[in-house]
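Hey all, sorry for the wall of text incoming. These are the two entities for the joint prediction.
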Amino acid sequence: MNVLLDNLSLYGEGLLGTVELTVYASLLALALGFLMAAFRVAPVGSLRGFGTAWVTVLRNTPLTLLFFAVVLGLPRFGVVLPFQLFAVLALGCYTSAFICEALRSGINTVPVGQGEAARSLGMTFPQTLGEIVLPQAFRSVIPTIGSTLIALAKNSAIAGAFSVTELLGVYKPLNELGYSIVWTFVWIAVGYLIVTLTISALFTLLEKRFGVAR
Amino acid sequence: MAAEALIELRGVNKHYGTLHVLQDIDLTVGRGEVVVVIGPSGSGKSTLCRAINRLETIESGSIHLDGRPLPAEGRALAQLRADVGMVFQSFNLFAHKTVLANLMLAPMKVRKQRKEEAAQRARELLDRVGLASQADKYPAQLSGGQQQRVAIARALAMEPKALLFDEPTSALDPEMINEVLEVMRQLAREGMTMVVVTHEMGFARSAANRVVFMADGRIVEDRTPEDFFTAPRSERARDFLSKILKH
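and here's what came out:
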């Protein structure tokens, strides 16, 4: 029990690290996922190809492997960034593939006639997508995107193995100091619950506000 | 009718797989003309209507609007579509926007009208189709007939040169058909150029300048309603009319 109170600042730093990773990577994943979903339904063949390749590569690569690729690979091309930024890149790009597919499944639930009506009024592809299709698609994918971001929060634990301060990594110094391993992990789990339940509450709220009225 | 051509199709062909849905279609619609397209289902009449603003692509032939060829894709096509309104069988009002917002969206995004200007024009048009009191409702809260009248008003908000109607009353309850047809008759009287795919023979008789009868992807007859309904030339048209007019 004392493990938490004795090491409050250590746990706090870890939690803060996880929250930072989650927030930044989520924003990146949402932005990229949105862009890739737009690419995948675009009338231009090369954009569709790029979107498909992006999803195929990132969705089918183990996240740990992706971390290695970013942390060890990018410096070879002269891209040297703080480890936290590398972690955000890896997590964000990986999750963007799942966001893209969630959005695309939402786009497929919007009746074709909605897009046809927009096009028949002279709206361009970006206007049709942004004004008509995505707002309706978004409503039906709020729960799925919530789940994907919760998965992202938990996946951020991998960053601990790449010298990034985050919650799971807290166990290492505590273990060396001789604290009970069980209680150390119980409090780490509570930390993750705080993050994931917050995301879950946020998306419940979004769903109530924007969800499809039936 | 010697009016100048607004819509001109020459030698248009299209297949769906092995089905030759449009076969060497030649059709000219003059400015201010009302052309009603009728025919059995599967005859290609909806495809013809949708090809005019390129919701359906064609394989060969040419389509000219107001003397200009229909662009293939992109911004030029969007600009041309803005000038040709379309009314669909299933209304296709934007489900997440109010009636007023449905009318204002394209004028603001495409014509770059200011919000107040678009709103004022939208209210005038709603008034014209008898739905001024429904402006703040969502499409799902309206009856089918009301939704279709909103859809017509939405198309009119772009001040189109021509309107295409793809079976506008086919999804409606019988008692709602007339309220929609009445709006369309009024437009016809005001000189709007219209291409109407429909099964409403009464409308064809009373409002059309010409009746185009299609069967199996071809235009079989293209005549005045009076001539067509009283003395159809082709066996195919006689057969069709006898089936629909008998009961």
